[in-house]
Amino acid sequence: MLLLTEQVLNGLQFGVMLFLLAAGLTLVLGIMNLINLAHGSLYMIGAFVAATVARWTGSFMLGLLAALPATALVGMAVEIVALRALYRREHLDQVLATFGLILFFNELAAMVWGPRALFLDGPSWLAGAVEIIPGVPYPAFRLAVLGVGLAVAAFLYWLVGHTRLGMLIRAGASNREMVAALGVNIRALYTLVFGLGALLAGLAGVMAGPIYAVEVGMGEPVLILAIVVIVIGGIGSIRGALVGAVLVGLVDTLGRAYLPSLLGLFMGPANASGVGGSLASMSIYILMAAILVWRPRGLFPAHG
Amino acid sequence: MDNPRAAGARRAALIGAACALALLAPALAAAAGADYLIGVGTRALILALAGLGLNLALGYGGMVSFGHAAFFGAGAYTVAILGFHATLGEPLLTWPFEIAGTESAFLAWPAAMAAAGALALVIGAISLRTSGLYFIMITLAFAQMLFFFFVSLEAYGGGDGLGLWARSSLPPLDLHDPWQFYYTVLGLLALFAVLKGRLVASRFGLALQGIRDNERRMRALGFPTVRYKLAAFAISGAVTGLAGALIANHAEFVSPALLSWQRSGEILVIVILGGMGTVAGPIVGAIAFVATEEALSQWSEHWRIVFGPLLVLAVLFARQGLWGLIAARERIHD
């Protein structure tokens, strides 16, 4: 029971972290119709900048404060220099060009920070554990990640659904020309949305820093998970991204924790840990394939 | 743009020159005292074959697969696992029927194609329920699934990979000789380029291109479009699987890295850089890719910092691919 609570919380925490990444990805995809594989690079940049600043100043919070604008700026610069020209291209062209950007950013990070992993400590006031239920201690930092993720989800819901900016964003997604004709600077709006997505990716990277290692290429595995999340949730849907992220987080974490012992009931322990391990790492892809067979446009299709 | 006949003559001349160059390449490399270039050339030809396979789905069928590394890796692992069991002298399977290991190219390479083709059939059957962006993503997800499958396949090396004791035996040739291996790969590439040319000009190929351009209309004409696409996807996977079998022989080593999503990206880059929907495109693309990689990596270990932006520029400005630039081809579609 104790272990289960902990694993469920781990799954939720992993899920909301994926959500931060998936939210930016799905916003850009749903609104600008751009598939940005380099989104994972922004996550990596966020983590590296935070780790570097935190090392200089000794403060995680200063690292966080530096990393957020830094990733937003990098994101907006990339949008203006390269991606803006790709909005009207086929998805194939976008995949290729952003694949090129990944190669560039990974190599750049390797040149600047070197091949070895950096470590980022969380803030000292979140170092301990909290007893969520009597007798079940849980790391305070992971709990904070969970809280931040849920707060961002609520903020995005409010921003997109209940503000003037959100209205313009949704209008721009359904008819770009019309919004431009009404006197809205749609280019600037897109750049702004891209910057917001980049900032969320950077935030995810900073919060991942103390939990996982900060290293070159850290963005891609998690990017692929974020893609799985938005495909499950339905491209362009923030709500879908949240549900998909939590599903993926839970299935992945619980699968890794329990599949080997579950299979142990049916086969020898050596076989069970091997088969269970591989099933666990494949489980989210199986989940995605199953959902797409059932609903080819994801759980919450955004348009139509 | 030149008139079609001049462009056709130019294309024929280019292809002739390229064939001559490909035949003479090992001798030229040896004469220049750079024998290692034969291996580099072999790798380029193998990647060209992989691209040629992908192009059938991508360029002619309009199916953007971001998971072809799965078929590449499946072909490679088939050869490696069969070879592994041949060395051990233990059968691979004893039930429901016995499959012994083998090092014979005549058995292992067709087996690699069959395994990759069957895999493509399954993946395609599920993925083709979706389209557009979802198709890109689901093929990527399947490739990742296989990647993790091989990572956890401890019996065959897991994440560390599996070395081959020897290259496949293809009597009377000795594939350990770089020259003979080069010409074997070249011969296979030429064979499949010709076959592919025949296939895309056949009724099947024309129907497939019709589906690419307007699936609805083809369906209204009575073509079972999903079945056509699925068949093309399976053939595409099988050809890429053969390329995988060759790369396993080339490196004498297989590892899950063969199935990584970066590899799928590379094969895509090769096809698109070269020019989709053309027979020569992936070959030009593969040679350009390997040559750029070789040249830049001699310049610096951080060659990707140049290669990445080059790729972005190529996407932005060379929309017909290199072959389109060289051969001044009229635009095929869109």
Topology:
The complex is a heterodimer of chains A (304) and B (334).
Chain A: H1 2-32, H2 39-57, H3 60-81, H4 91-113, E1 129-133, E2 136-139, H5 140-162, H6 164-174, H7 176-181, H8 186-208, H9 219-233, H10 238-263, H11 269-294
Antiparallel strand pairs in A: 1-2
Helix pairs in contact in A: 1-5, 1-8, 1-9, 1-10, 2-3, 2-4, 2-8, 2-9, 3-8, 5-6, 9-10, 9-11, 10-11
Chain B: H1 4-31, H2 36-60, H3 69-88, H4 105-127, H5 133-151, E1 162-163, H6 178-201, H7 203-213, H8 215-220, H9 225-251, E2 253-254, H10 261-274, H11 281-299, H12 304-317, H13 321-327
Can you give a write-up of this model?
The complex is a heterodimer of chains A (about 300) and B (about 325). With about 300 residues, chain A is mainly α. Chain A has one domain. Chain A is about 75% helix and about 5% strand. In chain A, strands 1-2 form a two-stranded antiparallel sheet. The longest helix of chain A has about 30 residues, at about 1-30. In chain B, helix 4 (about 105-125) crosses helix 9 (about 225-250). Residues about 330-334 of chain B have low confidence and may be disordered. Chain B has a single domain (about 5-325), classed as ABC transporter involved in vitamin B12 uptake, BtuC. Chain B is globular, with a radius of gyration of 20 Å. Chain B contains 13 helices and two strands, in the order αααααβααααβαααα. Chain B has helices at about 5-30, 35-60, 70-90, 105-125, 135-150, 180-200, 205-215, 215-220, 225-250, 260-275, 280-300, 305-315, 320-325; strands at about 160-165, 255.
